[in-house]
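agent> Task received from the user: take the single chain below, predict its 3D structure, and emit structure tokens. No templates, no multimer pairing.
agent> Plan: (1) validate residues, (2) run structure prediction, (3) serialize to tokens, (4) report one or two observations.
agent> Step 1 OK, no nonstandard residues flagged.
tool_call: predict_structure(input=
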Amino acid sequence: MDLSVPAVTLAALLLGTARATGFVLLAPPFNSRTIPGPVKAALALALSVLLSTQIAPSLPEPTAGFLVVAAVTEVVIGAALGFVVQVLFTAVQMAGDLIDVTGGFSLQPAYDPLAMTQNSSVGRLHYLLASTLLFTSGGHLLMVKGFATSYQGMPVGGEVPTDQIAAVVAKAFSLMFLAALQIAGPMVAVLLLADVALALLSRAAPSLNIFAFGFPVKILLTLTMLGLTFPLLPPALDALLDHAARAMVSLRSG
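)
tool_result: status=success, residues=254
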């Protein structure tokens, strides 16, 4: 028995895979190096299979030129959606980086073999905690739902809304800095007050070597109060994921 598949269905699978690939490569938690490349490819293909029935009705008769241009456009759109999610998710790690700078941990950065970069210890800890919370709270399913809903505003074959993407990215960066300050603000304030107290102590007793015990005091204070920032992560992460889902849905083509 011969099995024939319509050309429109194959085109929908191809273009859906292109957008899903761009999204999976940049959007957390799918962009982690702990997820093998074949698994990412299988996830992108699975998303395109699930959404092919939604993509196929809006496609014209596929031609070679249309498929090439549309595939490139879909990769760009998927990468833009994933980048917006990544920017908002990075706010949690930035909060840890702020604590590292004020607490003195950034003087000796640690090499991260997963990201192939040097990151601060507390910042990486916050990022790993946020990734764990993302899976345990079902946030990854919210990201997939936002990606699937993006086809309503940006159907396959439409133009890339560059102006809207630029505005959404700019707003995402502003929310990233605001969320990082809200998470790390109490700790940063306490550590800055500790710096002021050490400065006043050095003025009151010039014979004391502040550098000899200043860093140990700040490190001990940072480790003691670090647990105060952990309860702020779940609500902050929920708000960031909600903003990311809304940003993906708000984009409209042409």
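agent> Step 4: summary for the user.
The longest helix spans residues 162-204.
agent> Done.
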